[in-house]
């Protein structure tokens, strides 16, 4: 242990720690911008690029300014985090950064939620002494999911680190030099023409408005207010445990009933639950597991996550027959809405506009996939992220926290505990296991909790015994972890039968469309805990026991995997390697 | 410096260079790009992708390196590459005027190539010969203490050899 003196107070510090680590530990707040350390997912963005964390350091030769994030403590080191020199240096750095930043906070999506704006505000920057050249690179609106506004980029490189180190997709790199430096793609190609999976993790770590989702807000408002259109909305499992954060509630607050009430107030015709679609997915997927088990064509990979599906299409084209052919839950739900439900209500499916509320930005791209349609009608017409829904609720002046809870509409609103946990890494796998076990044991098994596949770890594995069968299963979240498992499958070393993959580290609770967590991963844990709480409070916790699911097979679909199911609920994948040219 | 060989030969030469020098790892990127530019005359998109795959480096990273160094060019370069040093030492000794003189003589701007593909004019930041400032490099030859008025004379030699 070493002794260092911070602002006159002697504190103990570990050798090898940075000034930032030690100061944080002892309650001295040093502002940061580029620095981001997310321990649980082996992510540390440490480019020492922004110099916002400057402090005065004296190691016996007089005080000098150093960046706290990259200066390691030494015994007897004197550190001033709040000296006039340090504060002035920080303010100058921010002013310089702002001198090449658009002054359009009033119109920016990130306004009031922007790390740069917040920093400028707390550091008391009220005017800018520097007026210089401004970059004019414009926006990349080529993709269906992510808008890239390079003029708002502060070169913190968080997006590059998460894309390369955590997701191993490697879309970004600093390109050009000096003032012209941008965090760009190869050949400055538009995102649409890169192997970007649209997972949106870059959006979730971006400190400014440089990376945001493609907004569907106006389109949805227009449809809600179009008397010719019947708008039907559905909400993903992970939205209900996160959206309350946007209204000042504690992370992990479950607000399903309030969310439903808000959607009804906004004017949606019907409010359905994607959890119902999740239960339906399990019926089809568990059936596929059992079928492929008998045929000997395992392993099977889950297919709920569109970011992950993009990843396999770009990076592992030889394996595109391995994922389940099941559409993702909201796509299934959309297809059923426009067939079964339309028929039930005797409405023309062309008049139905299906909106999915998703924790995800890749879902926007997914919804636009041509093959995710039935008879020329897209299964889903618009996708709003959790953040966009919150924005609309605020816009409509709805007092979210004060709302009386309401129930989902029927018949696509009832769901089981198995569906609830889809939003956490391992959840889809556990849900599929519950049903597969139920079918193989005639519902005689007493334990339906597969706790080995729960939690935030990147790769979880378990051996599940059902009758005489030993199923080896794994769940990976984060595309870097997915890559590890896929490489094993490709080389023939794979030992698993069923593998769940989610693109975002932690699963949908940490999706690219969720409320910004500003680097606080405990928020993700709380959201995850809330999902398991929903599950534990449900009377029905296995998808195949959902009465409305049983009913739709009786009335409409026949059996899982039957002809109609195939037409409405299954899809196919493409080799997209030629994108990388 | 324009492409001296047809593509297939160039790729084969590049493969040989990488194999013989054991350059098939990410750390060798600069050497490999250097040699690729020597072979192809410049670094078009296809060559950058080829190098990225060969060395197992993300394409974005290769592109980042290519765009960072002024030495690397993404467009075909002229037979003669003129590099005017605009580093601090040369700059204070009047390198900007030297550059201007080249621009006027060749009727192109910094970073451009003459229509007849004879000359490419570019700027470099310090060639490490500050005592001899201002310095200009044409291909591998170094010209020292260059005066704006001597630019025409320097160029004549290259114009003659181009004509012959």
Can you summarize this structure?
The complex is a heterodimer of chains A (581) and B (164). Chain A is of the alpha/beta class.
Structural class from helices and strands of chain A? alpha/beta
N-C termini distance of chain B? 17 Å
CATH domain class name of the largest domain in chain B: Alpha Beta
CATH topology value of the largest domain in chain A: Rossmann fold
Q: What is the helix tally of chain B?
A: 7
The top level CATH class name of the largest domain in chain A = Alpha Beta
Q: Mind telling me the C-alpha Rg of chain A? A: 25 Å
Task: Record the SSE blueprint.
The complex is a heterodimer of chains A (581) and B (164).
Chain A: E1 2-6, E2 9-13, H1 19-25, E3 36-38, E4 43-45, E5 54-58, E6 63-67, E7 78-80, H2 84-99, H3 115-122, E8 139-140, E9 146-149, H4 158-166, E10 173-175, E11 182-184, H5 201-205, E12 211-213, H6 217-224, E13 230-235, H7 256-266, E14 270-273, H8 274-295, E15 300-301, H9 306-315, H10 329-345, E16 352-358, H11 362-367, E17 373-374, E18 377-378, E19 382-385, H12 386-395, H13 417-420, H14 427-440, E20 459-466, E21 469-477, H15 479-491, E22 498-502, H16 522-537, H17 547-557, H18 563-569
Parallel strand pairs in A: 1-7, 13-14, 13-16, 15-22, 16-19, 21-22
Antiparallel strand pairs in A: 1-2, 3-4, 5-6, 5-7, 8-9, 9-12, 10-11, 17-18, 20-21
Helix pairs in contact in A: 8-10, 8-14
Chain B: H1 7-20, H2 29-40, H3 45-55, H4 59-68, E1 80-85, H5 88-92, H6 95-106, E2 119-124, E3 136-138, E4 141-143, H7 151-163
Parallel strand pairs in B: 1-2
Antiparallel strand pairs in B: 1-3, 3-4
Architecture overview:
The complex is a heterodimer of chains A (581) and B (164). Chain A is α/β, with parallel strands linked by helices and 581 residues long. In chain A, 33% of the residues lie in helices and 16% in strands. Chain A has helices at 19-25, 84-99, 115-122, 158-166, 201-205, 217-224, 256-266, 274-295, 306-315, 329-345, 362-367, 386-395, 417-420, 427-440, 479-491, 522-537, 547-557, 563-569; strands at residues 2-6, 9-13, 36-38, 43-45, 54-58, 63-67, 78-80, 139-140, 146-149, 173-175, 182-184, 211-213, 230-235, 270-273, 300-301, 352-358, 373-374, 377-378, 382-385, 459-466, 469-477, 498-502. A five-stranded mixed beta sheet of chain A has the order 2-1-7-5-6, sandwiched between helices. In chain A, helix 8 (274-295) packs across helix 14 (427-440). Chain A starts with a strand and ends in a 12-residue tail after the last helix. The mean pLDDT of chain A is 96. Chain B has 164 residues and is an alpha+beta fold. Chain B has two domains: 7-68; 80-163, Glutaredoxin. Chain B contains seven helices and four strands; from the N terminus they run ααααβααβββα. Chain B has helices at residues 7-20, 29-40, 45-55, 59-68, 88-92, 95-106, 151-163; strands spanning 80-85, 119-124, 136-138, 141-143. A four-stranded mixed beta sheet of chain B has the order 2-1-3-4, covered by helices on one side. In chain B, helix 1 packs antiparallel against helix 2 (29-40). Chain B is globular. The A-B interface holds A 164, 170-177, 184-187, 580-581 and B 45, 48-49, 58-64, 67-68.
């Amino acid at each position: 242990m070493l002794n260092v003196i911070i602002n006159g107070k002697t504190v103990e510090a570990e050798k090898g720690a940075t000034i930032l680590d030690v100061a944080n530990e002892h309650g001295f707040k040093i502002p940061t911008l580029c620095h981001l350390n997310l321990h649980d997912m082996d992510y540390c963005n440490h480019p020492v690029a922004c110099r916002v964390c400057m402090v005065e350091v004296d190691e016996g030769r007089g005080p000098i300014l150093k960046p706290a994030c990259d200066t390691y403590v030494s015994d007897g080191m004197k550190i001033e985090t709040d000296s006039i020199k340090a504060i002035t240096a920080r303010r100058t750095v921010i002013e310089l950064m702002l001198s090449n930043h658009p002054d359009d906070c009033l119109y920016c999506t990130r306004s009031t939620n922007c790390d740069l704006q917040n920093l400028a505000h707390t550091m008391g920057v009220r005017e800018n002494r520097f007026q210089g050249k401004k970059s004019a690179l414009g926006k990349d609106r080529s993709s269906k999911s992510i808008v890239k506004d390079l003029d708002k980029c502060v070169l913190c490189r968080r997006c590059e680190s998460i894309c390369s180190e955590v997701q191993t997709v490697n879309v970004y790199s600093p390109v050009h030099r000096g003032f012209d430096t941008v965090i760009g793609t190869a050949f400055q190609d538009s995102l649409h023409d890169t192997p970007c999976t649209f997972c949106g993790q870059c959006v979730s770590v971006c400190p400014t408005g440089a990376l945001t989702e493609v907004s569907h807000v106006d389109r949805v408002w227009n449809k809600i207010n179009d008397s010719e259109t019947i708008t039907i909305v559905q909400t993903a499992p992970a939205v209900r445990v996160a959206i309350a954060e946007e209204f000042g509630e504690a992370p992990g607050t479950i607000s399903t009933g309030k969310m439903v009430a808000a959607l009804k107030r906004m004017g949606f015709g019907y409010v359905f639950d994607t959890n119902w679609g999740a239960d339906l997915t399990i019926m089809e997927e568990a059936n596929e597991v059992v079928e492929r088990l008998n045929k000997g064509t395992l392993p099977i990979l889950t297919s709920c996550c569109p970011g992950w599906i993009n990843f396999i299409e770009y990076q592992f084209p030889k394996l595109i027959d391995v994922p389940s052919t099941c559409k993702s839950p909201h796509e299934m739900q959309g297809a059923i809405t426009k067939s079964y439900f339309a028929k039930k209500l005797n409405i023309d499916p062309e008049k139905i506009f299906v909106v999915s509320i998703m924790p995800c930005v890749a879902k926007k791209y997914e919804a636009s996939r041509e093959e995710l349609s039935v008879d020329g009608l897209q299964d889903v017409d618009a996708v709003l992220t959790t953040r966009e829904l919150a924005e609309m609720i605020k816009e409509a002046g709805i007092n979210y926290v004060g709302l009386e809870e309401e129930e989902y509409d029927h018949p696509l609103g009832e769901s089981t505990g198995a569906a609830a946990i889809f939003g956490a890494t391992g959840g889809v796998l556990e849900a599929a296991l519950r049903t597969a076990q139920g079918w193989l044991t005639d519902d005689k098994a007493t334990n339906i909790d597969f706790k080995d596949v729960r939690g935030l770890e990147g790769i979880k594995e378990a051996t599940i015994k059902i009758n005489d069968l030993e199923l080896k299963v794994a769940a990976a979240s984060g595309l870097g972890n997915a890559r590890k498992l896929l490489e094993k499958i490709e080389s023939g070393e794979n030992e698993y039968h069923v593998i769940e993959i989610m693109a975002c580290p932690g699963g949908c609770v940490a999706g690219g469309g969720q409320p910004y967590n500003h680097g606080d991963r405990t928020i993700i844990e709380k959201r995850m805990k809330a999902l398991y709480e929903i599950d534990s409070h449900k009377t029905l916790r296995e998808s195949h026991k959902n009465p409305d699911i049983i009913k739709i097979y009786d009335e409409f679909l026949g059996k899982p995997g039957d002809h109609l199911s195939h037409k409405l609920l299954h899809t196919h994948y493409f080799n997209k390697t030629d994108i990388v040219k | 410096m324009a492409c001296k060989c047809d593509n297939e030969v160039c790729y084969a030469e590049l493969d040989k260079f990488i194999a013989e020098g054991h350059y098939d790892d990410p750390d060798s990127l600069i050497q490999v790009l250097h040699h690729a530019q020597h072979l192809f005359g410049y670094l078009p998109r296809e060559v950058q992708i080829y190098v990225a795959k060969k060395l197992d480096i993300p394409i974005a990273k290769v592109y980042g390196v290519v765009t960072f160094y002024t030495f690397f060019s993404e467009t075909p370069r002229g037979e003669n590459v003129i590099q005017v040093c605009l580093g601090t030492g040369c700059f204070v000794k009047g390198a900007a005027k030297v550059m201007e003189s080249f621009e006027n003589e060749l009727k192109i701007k910094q970073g451009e190539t003459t229509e007849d593909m004879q000359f490419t004019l570019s700027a470099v930041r310090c060639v490490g010969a500050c005592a001899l400032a201002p310095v200009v490099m044409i291909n591998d030859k170094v010209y020292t203490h260059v005066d704006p008025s001597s630019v025409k004379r320097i160029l004549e030699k290259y114009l003659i050899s181009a004509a012959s």
